What does this fold into?
Amino acid sequence: MSLGALSAETLPEALVRAYQSSPQLNADRARQRGTDENVPQALAGYRPQIIASLSAGLQAVRNTLPDNTVQGTTLRPWTIGLTVNQVLFNGFKTANSVRVAEFQVLSGREALRNTGQGVLLDAVTVYMNVLANQALVEAQRTNVTVLREIQETTRRRLDAGDVTPTDTAQAEARLSRGLADLNAAEVTLAISKATYAQVTGEAPGPLAPATPVDRFSPLTMQASVETARHEHPAVLGAAYDVDTAQTTIRVAEGSLLPTVAVQANVSRSRDSDTTLGTSGTDQASIVGQINVPIYDGGTAASQTRQAKEMASQSRLVLEQVRNQSRTAVVGAWVSNEGAKVALSAAESEVKAAEIALQGVRREAAGGQRTTIDVLNAQQELTNARSRQIAAQRDRVIASYTLLSAVGRLDVHTLGLNTPDYLPELHYHQVRDAWHGLRTPSGQ
It folds into this structure.
């Protein structure tokens, strides 16, 4: 093994870098951390609300007595108080709101997992595109080198009188075409390298060949469809959305039920008016309150009907996502099987084209073939190699696409050398937080 092969970057290494540095994935992780905060916000409904109050000021008083004597003074009253409100029952709105928030968290995790699959599949695609385009550039360079040799040979034979100027023109035309094809391949390679840097965060260096990952996918199409139905993050996320919508109905219905709350209050006030019988007042109270909704103009009823319609929509969306998932799996399975056949055929085509070119060149040297026959055979070999390179690229991408369609394209399944991002960690850090403005990361 050469030193270049040892230092070449592998596909798993590129996937690790994309997984760690993807702005899209990091943005979705931040979104999910924001979604986690819905749960402590909902849990706040179980907790008391405490309010402290303080009022103070100046009050000018001017009194006129019966004998028309005027007395004036400036008062400095102040009051300090503490109020505690605790909801005891609110039609199960708090409990159902917590469940809604938890379902939203679960749905968000599946959306994050789906984004991770997309990032990894994009990384596979750009890696294989660069690898294939590098090979295509080398194939076109080899083609140009061979065409130059044919052109030089044709010119020498023209000088010797063995061929006509037509043969020379044909060789020059094919060389010009080969140079144009080489330029197009170099342009495509430059574009694919830029895309690679965008997806993985670094420009590509030497890349090692990649292999398919069929071993991680189910063995049959039907098994793949069933696996996707139960494991694909888009399907699971849509199912959690149904749970969210169903629970939202109960939140809306809670507005039609009574509310029970208790309020405790303590206060102290002072007044500097010496004409009053008292100069200060201390108070403490505990008050229970029951509110029974009689009629709210139809708001709660409308919200309940609306929630039911949204639940119906979410169930239809779930069915749609399941159908889309099945179609994606079938398409990915067929494409993967087709890629196997295409690669085998391309390899056989290259071998046959190499043998054909060798035979045509020998026959041309013996005068049994013309220059155009040699040029055509060379072009067929170049085309066959290009198709083989494309088939090798498609074969690897198709296997990863199938794994993504099934719902298993992740760090754990691929065994990548990087810690897996665990959204549950942040969730448990903030779920029962009663106070604090800083995030777990210190922001």
In short: The first strand starts at residue 49 and ends at 56. Residues 13-46+92-252+323-414 form a domain with the Outer membrane efflux proteins (OEP) fold (CATH 1.20.1600.10).
